[in-house]
Design a protein that fits this description.
67% of the residues lie in helices and 9% in strands. Strand 6 and strand 7 form a beta hairpin. It starts with a strand and ends with a strand. It has a six-stranded antiparallel β-sheet with strand order 2-1-4-5-6-7. Strands 8-12-13-3-14 form a five-stranded parallel β-sheet, with helices on both faces. The radius of gyration is 58 Å and the shape is elongated. With 836 residues, the protein is α/β, with parallel strands linked by helices.
Length: 836
């Protein structure tokens, strides 16, 4: 199939565009963002369907709206068809018409594509820069898996059948699965057993019967396990008796004994040898880098001294920062101390030649206030009494005068008696006044003074006038506060002095690079300047030291891995009694020759399985086989009779259990378990059928495609030789490793090749695959190359374009590139996308 014309209605940046293509090679030239990848994706989407909504970035919906899709005009078997695909479900709506406009069924496209789906198209017919890097991970198995798609008639259907069988088997059972049917049934079976055990514990006699039933179950299970094996042995013996003549004919063939070398051990040894070479190369590179670091890490004397005392200098810088803050406060603290000391002296001068007591507490001060108030209250009472006294003498005088006048002038004795009474009252009132007032005043006055005197003695105020006791409390409290503050600030100053002394002691070790006799501030500044000067060298040194540690760790790890690989390889070599790689290669060649001889023998012995052959080797004669068949038949019959007897006894015990049960729960659970056992056995048979069918079909496809691999490699060698200007002449596959042979017979693994040469190898393999499919399967699809050779130099690009033109004689090639120099090396049709 060849694409003759491309029409895009709307796809990404392209809208209503037409492109005509040559039958051989067409070059689409365009800068980045010119739409080359979009065009390649459009071709692939028309052939295999648009991306769905789960891949929004692969859909390339039109940027400016409009109809989505387009068509390709293709030529197939000398007839032209139009493949149109528009927006719709399941990859878009596909219509196919021939030259006359006749509508063709959609499966006609699959027929034109042959056995190629989108995955195979990507793997075989499409080349881009990202894909070329896959050469470093390519293996022989990858090629053989792709060959299976073309190795037999309707291989795609067989591969789909393989996938279906594998999925169906996994849907029935997985070793660690939970959702498959058999896994769920086994879980149900386990639950039923637990329920039966729980139900059985309800009855004492029931448990004894259950033990008997379980013992019968075990015996029945043992017989049921033995009986199928005995039957199989009986049937196998019958098969061996039938195959005995065939085996005798096979034994008459003289075959060489095959080697015991396994393919898995070969793969492991080859892998270990590759790892050994890689680890050795990496270890050499790391040691070289360590040598460079050692050579570049020389230090000056000051730097060396700094790094040797790095922790001490770091601590000096931290301590210097703290000390600087304290020194900045030092003068302020001294000034504050002097100010407080002056204030203290001024307070002390107010009370010269006296020992000042402590300030009173507020409660004691209140007590003193009350005592003073009491004394003052007594003084006020006396003053008041003195103020009221002049009124009483006047009364006394009046009474005395009246009494005297009555006594002198009164003619009657009554008047004289009244005068005497008045005079006596006056005298009594005067005496009472004098007596009561003096006594009370003296008593009150004496109590207050005594309390104040005792208070002064108690608190040390007796040497000061009582009038000063309350006034001096503020001075005493301030004096106590000043003493406390002076003590506190003196302690701070002493602490700073101690810190300065300690800092000078700690800095003595650096006397050879720093003048330690400077003032504290200058010394701290000098040390910080020295540290800052060395900081850059420190950073470089630390990075080098860190890098060295990392490289040393990496070297140790590589050395350990290398020793581990060497030990594993030596262990495998010891298994086959070889000493080194050369002896193993000889042993391996011998094993390959033995395998070839075995394959010829296997063709003759295809009628017998390995198990049957092994069993027949143990047989001496046909009569022995007949006797074995008879003996096994008797064993089978004996086991069947024993099984029947046990089942009958078990049925009787189960009947008694049923009679003892209160309900039918136990019987129902046992019936459910029996039904479940039958269901599980049916599912297991289905699972085995799927698995065996899967392995049979897979093996058949491998055998069908095995003869095509050497032809593809032979063609790839020719292409690779052309691409490399005959520098490399041979390609070898060794399990999961690809090697190339140069003209001088030097061998190189893919990882040892340059990026460009490795990509040339990949191109050669891909194009040989395309050529093989075209020659043997008749499938000729366009080769789509999207900027696949950007890493090639001019010579490589010229060689690959020459090869593409040679391929274009039989196969259509569509090359999308940004390289304008391509036009110098190719005569193909050119479409300039930059002009659209």
């Amino acid at each position: 199939m060849k694409i003759k014309q491309i029409h895009i209605d709307g796809f990404g940046k392209w809208q209503n565009r037409d492109f005509n293509l040559a039958s051989s090679i067409t070059i689409f030239l365009g800068d980045n963002e010119a739409g080359k990848s979009t065009l390649a994706k459009f071709i692939e989407s028309i052939l295999f369907g648009f991306a769905n909504g789960h891949q929004p970035y692969e859909q390339y919906l039109p940027k400016n709206g409009g109809q989505y899709g387009g068509f390709l005009v293709v030529e197939h078997r000398n007839r032209r068809y139009v493949l149109r695909r528009t927006q719709g479900k399941n990859g878009g709506l596909l219509t196919i018409t021939d030259e006359s406009g006749k509508r063709m069924p959609n499966h006609f496209l699959k027929m034109m594509l042959g056995e190629v789906d989108q995955g195979l198209f990507h793997a075989i017919y499409r080349i881009d820069t990202q894909e070329l890097s896959q050469i470093f991970a390519l293996s022989k198995n990858d090629f053989q898996n792709q060959l299976q798609h073309f190795g037999a008639v309707n291989s795609d259907r067989w591969l789909e059948k393989l996938t279906d069988l594998d999925k169906e088997a996994d849907s029935l059972y997985k070793v660690r699965g939970r959702n498959p049917v058999i896994n769920q049934k086994l879980e149900q079976y386990h639950d039923l057993n637990e329920q039966i055990d729980q139900q059985s514990e309800k009855y004492t006699h029931y448990r004894h019967l259950l033990d008997d039933v379980r013992q019968s179950d075990r015996q029945i299970q043992e017989i049921q396990q033995q009986l199928p094996q005995k039957r199989n042995d009986w049937h196998d013996a019958q098969d061996l008796l039938r195959l005995w003549p065939t085996y005798q004919r096979l034994q008459s063939i003289d075959t060489e004994k095959s080697s015991t070398l396994s393919n898995n051990d070969v793969a492991v040894i080859q892998s270990l040898r590759a790892k050994q070479d890689e680890y050795h190369r990496q270890l050499t590179d790391v040691n070289a880098r360590l040598g460079v670091i050692d050579a570049e890490s020389s230090l000056t004397d000051q730097q060396d001294f700094y790094f040797q005392n790095l922790d001490r200098f770091t601590k000096l810088k931290d301590d210097g920062t703290t000390l600087t803050l304290h020194l900045n406060q030092y003068d302020q603290l001294v000034s504050q101390l002097q100010s407080w000391q002056q204030e203290r002296r001024e307070l002390l001068q107010r009370y010269p030649d006296s020992h000042l007591p402590s300030a009173l507490s507020y409660s004691e001060e209140n007590r003193l206030q009350r005592l003073i108030d009491d004394r003052q209250h007594g003084d006020q009472s006396r003053t008041k009494r003195q103020q009221t006294t002049p009124k009483r003498p006047l009364l006394l005088i009046i009474l005395s005068v009246i009494g005297v006048l009555l006594l002198v002038t009164g003619s009657a004795w009554l008047m004289k008696l009244l005068g005497l009474i008045l005079m006596g009252c006056a005298a009594a009132i005067w005496y009472q006044e004098q007596s009561s007032g003096g006594t009370l005043h003296n008593a009150v006055q004496g109590t207050s003074d005594e309390a104040l005197r005792h208070f002064g003695i108690e608190h040390g105020f007796n040497q000061f006038p009582q009038s000063q006791w309350l006034r001096m409390q503020g001075d005493l409290r301030r004096l106590e506060e000043l003493n406390r503050q002076i003590q506190q600030i003196t302690t701070q100053i002493k602490t700073i002095d101690n810190q300065t002394t300690q800092y000078r002691e700690h800095v003595q070790f650096s006397a050879e690079v720093i003048d330690v006799q400077q003032s504290p501030q200058a010394l701290i500044k000098h040390i910080n300047m020295f540290i800052d000067r060395q900081q850059g060298a420190r950073d470089v040194w630390q990075r080098q030291r860190q890098q060295k540690r990392l490289l040393e760790d990496q070297a140790q790890q590589l050395s350990d891995k290398l020793n581990e690989v060497i030990q594993k390889k030596a262990t495998l070599y010891h298994r086959y009694d070889v000493q080194d790689d050369h002896e193993f290669d000889q042993y391996y060649d011998s094993a390959l020759r033995s395998i070839a001889n075995e394959e010829r023998s296997q063709v003759l012995g295809s009628q017998l399985t390995d198990k049957q052959i092994s069993a027949l080797k143990m047989v001496n004669s046909n009569d022995d086989l007949r006797q074995r068949v008879t003996s096994l038949a008797n064993d089978v019959k004996h086991l069947e009779v024993s099984l029947q007897t046990l089942q009958q006894n078990q049925t009787a015990a189960q009947l008694e259990i049923k009679q003892l049960s209160e309900n039918g729960t136990l019987t129902m659970l046992r019936q459910q378990r029996a039904d479940l056992q039958t269901e599980i056995l049916e599912l297991v048979r289905d699972w085995l059928t799927h698995k065996l069918s899967y392995h049979w079909i897979n093996r058949a496809l491998q055998l069908a495609s095995a003869d095509r691999f050497p032809k593809i490699i032979q063609q790839a060698q020719k292409y690779f030789e052309t691409l490399t200007n005959h520098r490399y002449t041979k390609i070898e596959f060794e399990n999961d490793r690809i090697s190339v042979i140069a003209q001088d017979r030097s061998a190189f693994q893919v990882g040892e090749l340059s990026q460009g040469t490795a990509q040339q190898l990949y191109v050669a393999l891909k194009l040989s695959f395309v050529t093989s499919i075209s020659n043997q399967n008749g499938i000729q699809l366009p080769v789509l190359i999207d900027d696949g050779f950007v890493d090639f130099d001019a010579d490589r690009r010229a060689n690959v374009l020459q090869l593409l033109e040679l391929l274009g004689e039989k196969q259509q090639v569509i090359y999308l590139t940004t390289d304008r120099q391509t036009l110098q090396y190719s005569n193909g049709t050119v479409v300039n996308l930059n002009q659209m």
